[in-house]
Amino acid sequence: MIEVRDLTKYFGARAAIRALNFDIRPGEVVGFVGLNGAGKTTTLKILGCVLLPSSGQVRIDGIEVTAEPHEVRRRIGFLPDVPPLYDEMTVGAYLTFAARLRGVTSRDAPARVQESEDKLALRDVHGELIGTLSYGFRQRVGVAQALVHRPRLLILDEPAAGLDPVQIVEMRNLIRRLRGEHTVLISSHFLAEISQTCDRLLVIQAGEIVAQGTEEEIAATLGTPGEIEVALRGPAATALEVARKVPGVLDAQIAHSSAQEIVLKIRAREDCRPEIARALVLAGHQLLRLDRGTSRLESIFIELTQRERLS
Amino acid sequence: MSAALLIARRELGSYLRTMSGYIIAAAVLLVDGILWNAFALGAQQDKHSAEVLSDFFYFSSGTTMIAAVFLSMRLVAEERQNGTLVLLASSPVRDREIILGKFFSALAFLAMVTLATAFMPALIMVNGKLSIGQVAAGYLGLLLLGSAALAIGTLGSTLARSQVLAAIISGAMLVGLIVIWLLASVSERPLNDVFLALALWGRHFPPFQAGVINLRDVAYYLLVTYFALFAATRVLEARRWQ
After folding, report:
1. Which of B1, B18, B241 sits opposite A52 (nearest CB)?
2. Contacts of residue B91 in chain A, CB cutoff 8 Å?
3. What residues in chain B have their Cβ under 8 A from chain A's Cβ atoms?
4. In contact, A25 and A152? CB cutoff 8 Å
5. Range of B218's domain?
6. How far apart, in whole angstroms, are the C-alpha atoms of residue A122 and residue A91?
7. pLDDT of chain A along its 311 residues, tens only?
8. Which of B86, B94, B240 is the closest to A84 by Cβ?
9. Which residues of chain A are at the B interface, by a Cβ-Cβ cutoff of 8 Å?
10. How many domains does chain B fold into?
11. Please, what are the domains in chain A?
12. What pTM was estimated for this model as a whole?
């Protein structure tokens, strides 16, 4: 779906991105993570045909973006970091305008607008002025304009920025629903969101891709330990001892202990949740809960960004 | 519907849905009305109808150019300020369609405002005779002058990062093109002919005031419009590199 080869963009003498290489397959949901100023937005703007690269090649659906930008633009939906909204328009009029701009016929436009409003739960504000909407609704309208013409590729730059926890969950569910219908490239600072919604990660640092692959693949490359959280009933000392003996486990600590339950935090080199569960149950403990901790991606991210800073 | 027409329709709707369009229209009508009363109706000595009409088009040309600067300053600069230019830039729309759509919306609005002043020349019929030919030529001149001023304003708006800066750049370009005829008086032929030919107002507008339509003047305003819009398109294309 996307082939990026040696993509470079200079602003004056400064290279915002340098020789980026990556591929995204059709139907994938890929997370693009990096610190502020790492080059995420520049890359997404080039993929969205808003910016032209200094050198390198970008092919979307086999079409070169610099040679045939119009054909590429028909295939993409782009949400920039600031949603491009006209405050004086109603939601319905704005989405119709966006659909018509992307080549949807006037006959099909009402159905497409309705479809995108349904996906984003915007039907109730169809006739409202965009300028009167809350931040969360504005963000949703921004996503709706990106998918109103049913693009094959959706590029979302920080779709969850500024949303409250409920809205973040809604956005996460939306991105999950988009899986299969669209190829999605999503940049975000919310690593937990990326971890839960994306098939694969691209980590960018100082304008260069420093890692790519699934969370497990990157962690395995770096040797970054994952975190597993276990809630159980039974003697704490034996639980610790059993957990520490499971192959792959680096360390185990008691995070919380009460009469009702004991919570263990286990650091493991690989995902060894089945082995831990089996060992604890065989040792006579009552297993209440077993989760993969959310801090693994954070560990990967910190490790990668610190490595680059040190180098 | 072409993308340029879609953009023009949205922009025209924006003028009509927001206060800025009404404020500019009201200001033009108010200033034209004051000048009409002060110079055309309130003059001490008797005037022929043709002179009154000529005076009306004389001061209307000034308000038209000023209105063009204020109408065009938002066209691209506002979109850049608000981040909405990305919607157009990421859609299958050519840069020239963006510029044309925006220009034609502003021209349509300026035409509506200009034609709304028609009641003033019509008042001449109370005490005099009205030459329909002079009225038609005068309004054609105003529209052509407004078109050229709007195109220059569109270029200014494309160059600037803010609306205020856009108004300053456009105003400076317009004033420069108007006062260029002064250089004609301090230069010799053939250079002074060039200055006179280039001046936005001095040689090209007065014939319209008098009810005379010269093909040379029509072509001049259309060429200024074309070159300014062409430059604006090029500037917008160049922005994709930045």
Report:
1. B241
2. 73, 98, 101-102
3. 1, 3, 6-7, 10, 13-14, 17-18, 82-94, 240-242
4. no
5. 3-239
6. 8
7. 899 999 999 998 899 999 999 999 998 999 998 888 889 999 999 999 999 999 999 999 999 998 899 999 999 999 998 999 999 999 999 999 999 999 999 999 999 999 999 988 899 999 999 999 998 899 999 999 999 999 999 999 988 887 888 888 888 888 888 888 899 999 987 777 787 788 888 988 888 888 888 877 777 676 666 778 889 998 888 888 888 888 888 888 888 888 888 888 888 877 788 889 999 999 888 999 888 765 567 777 777 776 656 55
8. B86
9. 11, 45, 48-52, 70-71, 73-74, 76, 78, 80, 82-86, 88-89, 97-98, 100-103, 106, 145
10. 1
11. 2-213 (3.40.50.300), 224-300 (3.30.70.1560)
12. 0.85
Q: And the tokens for B91?
A: 């859609």
